[in-house]
Amino acid sequence: MEYYILLTITLLGVVIIYGIYLTITTVANKVFEKQQWDIRNKHTEITLPLRLQAYERMCLFLERISPNNLLLRLVPSAMNALELQQILLNDIREEYNHNVAQQMYISTNAWDHINNAMHEIVADINNASVDITPEAPASDLAKKIFSHVIQKEVQPASFALKILKEEIRTFFKTILNQFPGKLIISKYPDQKINQ
Fold first, then answer.
1. Rounded to two decimals, what is the model's pTM?
2. Which DSSP string do the residues of 74-95 spell out, in sequence order?
3. Which end of the chain has the lower number of beta carbons within 10 A, N or C?
4. CA–CA separation, 148 vs 67, rounded Å?
5. pLDDT for res 182
6. Please, which residues have CB within 8 angstroms of residue 157's CB and are 6 or more apart in sequence?
7. Per residue in 35-65, pLDDT tens?
8. Distance, CA of 185 to CA of 23 (rounded, Å)
9. d(CA 190, CA 192)
């Protein structure tokens, strides 16, 4: 009889200990999941504005170095073809150096397309300047650059811009899937992005 009582008490003790173990592990798992969620949320809170700013700046970079915009902005300041070539290449280099750190926040694929676009535009400028004498009017070089650009089926800056836009759309979908039902407030108070 004492054996059954001892066995019953032991079994009850094991069941109670197992129940406590399950309760503690369940609570610990919930706490761990909440911490993971908080960390992911904080990480997104910090990096989202930086990534968005990087994409904005790189879109602006591509717009500014597109031959059409470059020439409209810089031709009036050049006296001859050589000076225009130097001004264009210097402007592209300055824009690039100003934005080079943004590669930390965008994908390698997007950065490669941006680099390729920049190098193609520089090559177009240099190739066009080979056909023009250095003392020729700046407008002659501008026309030659336009003719090189028009011959291309795909404009390098436009193609890279398309890649950036696709990537940012994918990025937003990922963010919205990670945080379903959450409202993401932009740094601009009048703009809200909702799922």
1. 0.72
2. HGGG-SBHHHHHHHHHHHHHHH
3. N
4. 10
5. 55
6. 62, 63, 65, 66, 67, 117, 121
7. 888 777 777 777 788 888 999 999 999 999 9
8. 37
9. 7
